[in-house]
Structure formats: C-alpha cells, structure tokens
Amino acid sequence: MKFQTIAAAAAILCLGFTGVTAQETPIAKRQALMKGIGGAAGALGAIAKGEKPYDQATVRTALTTISTNIKAFPDQFPAGSETGDKTKAAPAIWEKNADFRAEAQKLASASDTALASLPADQAAVGAALKTLGGECSTCHQNFRLR
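Structure (tokenized):
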C-alpha cells in the first residue's frame, strides 16, 4: 500500500515536471510573451475605443507589459527552435537576426516613450496604440509566417 502511494506520488510529480518542462521551451516562452503583449494591446484598445473607461493603472500596466515582454522576446529564438509547437516564426528571424532585434527594439523604445509620458486620456491612449501597433505590424509583416 505504501509503495503504491509513493509510486502514484512519483508519477504525479513526473507529469507535473513534464508540463513545466514543456512550457519552458523557447517556443512556449516566446508565445507566452507575445500573448502578454497581445493582452496588453487589447486592454489599451478597449480604452482607445471607449469600451472601457480610461484607467491610469491599466494603461501603465499594459505599457509596462509590452516594454518588458518585447525586451525579452528576441532572446527566445535560439538555433533549433525554428519549427514545432505551432510556431509562426519566419525563417527571416534567423537569417536577418540583427534586423529582427532592431524591430523589437523599436517597439521597446515606443512603449518606453509612451510610459515616460503616460497617456492621460482616451485620445492619448489611442495615439500611443497607433504608434505601437505600427511597430507591431512592421515586425509581423517581416518576421511572422502568415
């Protein structure tokens, strides 16, 4: 009986470890970072469209998430992570890595600029989102598979 309990506990721990390990792949990390950016952009978009009221804390959190995530994002593309896990990363990321990193830096700079002069109302959030969205779009056109 004691052996079965120990074996069951070990099996559960192994399954949990496998789940954690799977989430720690570069593809999973970059997908999680991009989902965070998408969620933050969605929060800003809801304010810009008037679907949600302006909230300074929400704006600050969203811009901080974008800034933090995009700064970590380019480091999640090591050799060997070109395929698998439903990645939409284009080969150009590895072929033109300096250009890819420069595009990510443009979004980081834009989000840092918006953070430094925090948008103070719905219209300002919309203007900041337009700038951020332009940077996102450029990178997606060049470095994301369609």
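The domain at 26-143 is CATH 1.20.120.10 (Four Helix Bundle (Hemerythrin (Met), subunit A)). The chain has one domain: 26-143.
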